[in-house]
Design goal:
Blueprint: H1 12-25, H2 49-63, H3 74-77, H4 81-91
Helix pairs in contact: 1-2
Organism: Acetobacter garciniae
Protein name: Acyl carrier protein
Domain Carrier: 8-92
Length: 95
């Protein structure tokens, strides 16, 4: 059984993305305090649509993965730090 999806501790890649989120969005929280399973928007970190654009730009620049607001899976991709990190890992260009 894969417990990774229910593990509340951050993976190294999730920590890396969390550090970038805190930096780009100027969040007043330490990267390690971001629960990888908590929602990124509304009741979680409280991000909004402008933040989503900034996150998408950061992901594109840092990892070469394009996130589009018209992607039918965007709600799932941005659901949590874990979901975002998983999507980037899967879609990241090799090399």
């Amino acid at each position: 059984m894969n417990t990774h999806l229910s593990d509340p501790s951050q993976t190294p890649f999730e920590r890396e993305i969390a550090e970038r989120l805190v930096d780009v969005l100027q969040l007043e929280i330490a990267p390690e305090e971001i629960d990888p399973l908590a929602p990124l928007f509304v009741e979680g970190l409280g991000l909004d649509s402008i933040d989503a654009l900034e996150v998408a730009l950061m992901i594109s620049r840092a990892y070469g993965v394009t996130l589009s607001s018209d992607d039918p899976n965007s709600r799932d991709i941005f659901a949590s730090l874990r979901a975002l990190a998983t999507h980037v890992t899967v879609m990241r260009p090799a090399g």
